[in-house]
Each structure stands twice: as structure tokens, then as C-alpha cells.
């Protein structure tokens, strides 16, 4: 039975589910517009992947990234894309290039910190990629600790210029995406030095290459940092300044400036709020975009599992069983599928919260920023880690063939892996959320108002009595809340005790409570995700699709709750109910079997995006593998490999 026969088993309308999913993912872009842009992208050669890319040299990959950037610019301009539409187009490509970084990281940072005059001066050239910029904060010796940045911008009031310097080895800018070969300018985070006084980190929009020749300017040392585990299209670079003089106008002046008298002026007292908002934006986007990569991997793995057959069927020894007919394969892939849907529902809620915060910020009301920062940090930390794990699970589910680059999954994994590190190490971000939650507990004890998501923490000590339906969403949510209640209150008590004993808070959170803090934060993360899952389910109108996704909710909930079985029993859950929850889980795996292909194909990832011999929509796995090995592999161009003739034969 081929994939078309498998598709006939699906119990719901896949088209309707696709429309629902994209209403959650891109609520401000019509479904027709999404389809229109996808169709146009598929007709542009430089915006489509082929299997040949797996044989690319680093130079080939960089060249491909440059061509892709130009093609992106063309479609953005021709289609007059909104920001959401641009993000959709960029999300079509599971690789990072200088153009993606220009639009996704550099331009938001520039627009945030530049004055209106500076934005007007550069807007057209930035939109057209005439100027390619990068965000140069990270240094060889410093990353997230902005206060520790060593690069200097020394103000020379005699010449009304800045002297940019990299005074130490560790002050080299490092890992800067797009800097290696592409960028003409860098948005540099440097210490502003005035009259030998350190004024703290500021931003400077500095030319680093000649606009005519692209040669590095005098006083600039710049280059690519070398091969990485993945993302060969990304030219991560290094940068050193050696008494490099630039005009005063390079300082971005939305928040502060040096006036005509050579005096430092603060222009916007809300600077910290706005910068805080930009930090939140980056983490929200990383959380919102995390559904994309595991969805590609799961499309490949589920299709392959419906094509690949292994060992005789006990009930029909003349035929072999499909991989997806094995319980262990179902448990792995359907848990991944459940996590993907969870991420989509979290994305929808996070987007609502972020948009509300942005509306308030227009009036400089930062009242939601603290809550949103904690939530986005928590989600970035756990969701990106979960997405990475999902991709690797999918690779292993493809057996030995999953190790081939032609499968598409190894490249995907290596490309997404650094998401656990950039824009904040996951562990550090989760700890920030944990500290926020201990402060929520303190507010509860003081009778102060708290955000709605945390109200359950103000209730009496939970006891899981009453209805204990092992399949019920409300019972599962009560379990999550009870576990989170106990974990967070214990964490807050521990912190309070250490503070009472005279220990400083920073010592507590760097030496004693980090492991416990992450564990407690995880319990709240699952509580929040499951709440969002229930909300998302309530919006589905097709009863068959709703039931299919309810099984995914059960899979998500029970696989997570199983880790806390002992705590749940201590909180009043019946051991018999805990056992029955496992039966519910196994049934959910079985019920998802026939709908799996519909649930993953509802995301409509085309073959051009998958770039995989294993995940082709037509199911022609083996023909594709053989063709790629025989005809695309340059090693097989000659009947005798040249290296054999050159090195081995003379020694025989």
C-alpha cells in the first residue's frame, strides 16, 4: 500500500485543518495569500533546494546564500511583502544566510536604536540590500554580558569623531552572522568613552568595507571564522578595529547622543523599556518559529515510516510490516507530532500576548514586559531544546538511511542546533524565568496582584481528589498545576531560607538553586503549554480533526506527567488512575496511526523544502536514493576514483 492509499485512511478534511493551522501560525496573512506566495517561491530556482547542495563546498554554499538573498529581495519588493509575509518566505528555507540575518536580526535592531533621521537616511539602501548590515555584539571573550563588552568607541572632541578600537584579543567581534564576507556595515555594540570615562555600551552603525570595491577599510581586520557544525551558507565572521576613525554621525541616536557642544545627552528616558521590548521580541520570534524545523523532519520520517517495511507480519507472513505499524515507532513519532502541535498552539497564545504588549508600548506602557520576558525566555529555552530533540528522534526513526545527508534530516539538525545558544543560552533564560516565578510567590504572600497564568499558585495546597478521569483534559491540567504548585513553592521556600541565613541572592542563583530552578520552571512550562493546547483544541470546529488532535493532546500530557508519577500519587492521585493513564497513552498511539499522515501533511511542506530522498510526497524512496547515489554523487563520476590511481595503485 502506497502513500496515496494511506492518505485515504485519514478521517478528517486535511485542507480544512491546513487552513486552521495557518490561521494559528500566521493570523494576519490570509490563507490564499500564503498559498500564492508559496506557489511563486516554487517557481524561482534560487529559492529552491536540490539534493546537489549536499555536495557543496563551503564556497558553493556561500554563493548559494548570496543568490538566495537577491532572489528574496526581488520577491519582497515585487510582492510588497509585509513583515509577517517576509517571515513566512524566510521560514521556507531551513538555512541562515546574510539576507535572512539582514531582515530578521539586523534591521529590527537598527530600526529600534536609530533616530528617525538615521532611518530615513538608510532605509532605501537597506531594503534593497545595497547596504548589508550585521549586528556585532558578541566578542571572542563576551556574549550575553553586554556590560563586559571590551570594544571601545573613544570620542575625540577635537575632531568630533570616534576612534574605534579592539584593545585585547578577547575584544575581537566573533560569531557575527553575515560579517565574514557579505556585510558592508556593522551595527557595533561598544563602550562609549568620553573624557576617559566609560559611559557604558552604545551602538554605532559603522562602515567596514568599501562600498565600491567591498575591500576592508583601513583600520579594519575582518574575515570568516571558519567551518561550523552546520549553516554553511552563513558567513559568521570576526572583526577587529585598530584606531579606526569614524564620524560622530555613526552613533545611533534614538536614546542618547553627543550634542554640538560635545556633551552627552539622554534623549529618551524610556530607553530601557524599549531595549527590553526588543530583547523580548527576539525570544518570542525564536519560540514562534520553532514549529518549522521539526515539522520538516516529521514529514520526512512519517512518510518514510509508511513506505519502509521491516520483518514479516505475524498475521500475514507473506508481507512485511510498515515501520509505523510498530508500537515503538509510533510512540517516538507521535510524541514528536504532539509536540509540534503544542508549539503551534503556544505560538498563537504567545503572539496574542506579544501583540498586546506592543500596543501598550506605543504609549510607553511596559506593564506586560516583565511577564512576557519571563514567558518568552521560558518558551525559548524549552521549545528550542524540544525542537532539536524532535529532529534527532525523526532522524533515528529513519534508521541507517537517516544518517545519509540525502535524507535531509542531518542538515536540518545541524542548521537548527545553535538555536539552543544564540539570543541567550537556554539554561540561563530558563533560570531568569525561575527567578521571576519565585517573585510571583512572594507577591502572592504579600497579597499583590499577579498575572492570570499564575493565579493557580495562589490557591490552597492542591489535593487531586474528586474526578480522576485518566483521559480528561481538566484532570491532566489539574495534575500539571499541582506539580508546578509544589515545585515552585518549594523553590521559593528554599530561596527565602538561604536569604534569611544571610546569603546573597546572586550566590544562591549561581551556586545552589540553578538545577532546582530549571526543574521547577519546567513544571510550569508544561502547565502553560498544556493550557494553550486545550485552548487551541477548543477552536477546532471539525469534530473528526478535533478528536485526532485530542489524541495528540493526550500523548503530550501523559508522556510529560509520567515523569512525575510519584509526586502525583503523593498529591492524591490514585495509583490505579496513573496506570490507566498509560493505557490511555497506548490507545492514543494506536488511534493516531491512520491519521498521522494527514496530521503532518496539513502543514504542507513541499518536496523542495524537504530536500529529501526519504520524504518525497510520491513515496518513491528507493528510486530516489539510487538516483542520487548514482547520478548526483561526484565521487561516482569516474569508474575508478582518481585518488586510487594517484595514491594506491603506485604502492601495489
CATH homologous superfamily label of the largest domain: Butyryl-CoA Dehydrogenase, subunit A, domain 3
CATH fold name of the largest domain, please? Butyryl-CoA Dehydrogenase, subunit A, domain 3
Rg over C-alpha atoms, rounded to the nearest angstrom: 27 Å
Number of strands: 13
Q: From the coordinates shown, what is the CATH architecture of the largest domain?
A: Up-down Bundle
Poorly predicted segments? none
Characterize the overall form. globular
Instruction: Kindly name the structural category.
Output: alpha+beta
Per DSSP, the total helix count is 23
List the helices and strands and how they pair.
Layout: H1 3-7, H2 14-25, H3 31-41, H4 58-79, H5 83-91, H6 98-113, H7 116-127, E1 133-136, E2 152-156, E3 161-165, E4 173-176, E5 185-194, E6 197-207, E7 220-224, E8 237-241, E9 244-247, E10 256-258, E11 264-266, H8 271-288, H9 292-307, E12 309-313, E13 316-322, H10 327-361, H11 369-397, H12 409-416, H13 426-446, H14 473-500, H15 505-512, H16 514-538, H17 543-561, H18 565-570, H19 575-592, H20 596-601, H21 607-610, H22 621-632, H23 642-648
Parallel strand pairs: 1-5, 2-5
Antiparallel strand pairs: 2-3, 3-9, 4-8, 5-6, 7-8, 10-11, 12-13
Amino acid at each position: 500500500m502506497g502513500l496515496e492509499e494511506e492518505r485515504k485512511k485519514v478521517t478528517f478534511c486535511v485542507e480544512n485543518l491546513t487552513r486552521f493551522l495557518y490561521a494559528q501560525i500566521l493570523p494576519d496573512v490570509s490563507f490564499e495569500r500564503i498559498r500564492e506566495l508559496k506557489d511563486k517561491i516554487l517557481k524561482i530556482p534560487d529559492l529552491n533546494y536540490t539534493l546537489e547542495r549536499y555536495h557543496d563546498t563551503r564556497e558553493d554554499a556561500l554563493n548559494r546564500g548570496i543568490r538566495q538573498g537577491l532572489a528574496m529581495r526581488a520577491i519582497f519588493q515585487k510582492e510588497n511583502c509585509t513583515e509577517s509575509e517576509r517571515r513566512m518566505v524566510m521560514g521556507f528555507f531551513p538555512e541562515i544566510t546574510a539576507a535572512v540575518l539582514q531582515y530578521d536580526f539586523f534591521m529590527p535592531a537598527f530600526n529600534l536604536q536609530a533616530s528617525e533621521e538615521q532611518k530615513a537616511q538608510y532605509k532605501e539602501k537597506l531594503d534593497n540590500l545595497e547596504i548589508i548590515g550585521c549586528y556585532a555584539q558578541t566578542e571572542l571573550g563576551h556574549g550575553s554580558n553586554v556590560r563586559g563588552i571590551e570594544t571601545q568607541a573613544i570620542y575625540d572632541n577635537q575632531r568630533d569623531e570616534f576612534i574605534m578600537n579592539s584593545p585585547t584579543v578577547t575584544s575581537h567581534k566573533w560569531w557575527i552572522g553575515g560579517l565574514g564576507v557579505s556585510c558592508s556595515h556593522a551595527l557595533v555594540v561598544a563602550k562609549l568613552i568620553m573624557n576617559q570615562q566609560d559611559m557604558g555600551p552604545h551602538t554605532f552603525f559603522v562602515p567596514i568595507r568599501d562600498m565600491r570595491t567591498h575591500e576592508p577599510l583601513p583600520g579594519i581586520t575582518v574575515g570568516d571564522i571558519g567551518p561550523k557544525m552546520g549553516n554553511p551558507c552563513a558567513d559568521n565572521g570576526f572583526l577587529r578595529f585598530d584606531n579606526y576613525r569614524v564620524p560622530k554621525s555613526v552613533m545611533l541616536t534614538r536614546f542618547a547622543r553627543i550634542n554640538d557642544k560635545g556633551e552627552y545627552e539622554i534623549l529618551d528616558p524610556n530607553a530601557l523599556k524599549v531595549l527590553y521590548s526588543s530583547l523580548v521580541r527576539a525570544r518570542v520570534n525564536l519560540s514562534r518559529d520553532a514549529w518549522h524545523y521539526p515539522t520538516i523532519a516529521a514529514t520526512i520520517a512519517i512518510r518514510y515510516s509508511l513506505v519502509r517495511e521491516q520483518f514479516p507480519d505475524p498475521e500475514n507472513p507473506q508481507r512485511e510490516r510498515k515501520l509505523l505499524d510498530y508500537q515503538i515507532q509510533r510512540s517516538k513519532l507521535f510524541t514528536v507530532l504532539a509536540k509540534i502541535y503544542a508549539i503551534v498552539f503556544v505560538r498563537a497564545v504567545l503572539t496574542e500576548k506579544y501583540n498586546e504588549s506592543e500596543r501598550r508600548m506605543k504609549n510607553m506602557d511596559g506593564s506586560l514586559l516583565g511577564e512576557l520576558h519571563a514567558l518568552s525566555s521560558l518558551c525559548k529555552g524549552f521549545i528550542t531544546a524540544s525542537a532539536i530533540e524532535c529532529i534527532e528522534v525523526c532522524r533515528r526513526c529513519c534508521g541507517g538511511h537517516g544518517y545519509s545527508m540525502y535524507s535531509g534530516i542531518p542538515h536540518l539538525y545541524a542548521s537548527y542546533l545553535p538555536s539552543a545558544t544564540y539570543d541567550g543560552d537556554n539554561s540561563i533564560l530558563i533560570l531568569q524565568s525561575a527567578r521571576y516565578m519565585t517573585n510571583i510567590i512572594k507577591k502572592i504572600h504579600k497579597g499583590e496582584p499577579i498575572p492570570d497564568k499564575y493565579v493557580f499558585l495562589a490557591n490552597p495546597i492542591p489535593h487531586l481528589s474528586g474526578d480522576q478521569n485518566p483521559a480528561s483534559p481538566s484532570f491532566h491540567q489539574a495534575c500539571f498545576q499541582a506539580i508546578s504548585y509544589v515545585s515552585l513553592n518549594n523553590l521559593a521556600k528554599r530561596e527565602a531560607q538561604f536569604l534569611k541565613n544571610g546569603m546573597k541572592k546572586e550566590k544562591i542563583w549561581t551556586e545552589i538553586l540553578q538545577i532546582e530552578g530549571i526543574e521547577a520552571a519546567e513544571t510550569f512550562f508544561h502547565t502553560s503549554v498544556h493550557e494553550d493546547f486545550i485552548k487551541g483544541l477548543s477552536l477546532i470546529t471539525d469534530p473528526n480533526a478535533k478528536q485526532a488532535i485530542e489524541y495528540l493532546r493526550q500523548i503530550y500530557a501523559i508522556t510529560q506527567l509520567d515523569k512525575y508519577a510519584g509526586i502525583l500519587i503523593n498529591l492524591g492521585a490514585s495509583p490505579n488512575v496513573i496506570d490507566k493513564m498509560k493505557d490511555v497513552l497506548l490507545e492514543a498511539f494506536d488511534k493516531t496511526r491512520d491519521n498521522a499522515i494527514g496530521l503532518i501533511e496539513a502543514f504542507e511542506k513541499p518536496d523542495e523544502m524537504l530536500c529529501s530522498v526519504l520524504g518525497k510526497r510520491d513515496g518513491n524512496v528507493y528510486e530516489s536514493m539510487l538516483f542520487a547515489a548514482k547520478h548526483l554523487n561526484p565521487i561516482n563520476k569516474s569508474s575508478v576514483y582518481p585518488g586510487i590511481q594517484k595514491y594506491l595503485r603506485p604502492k601495489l
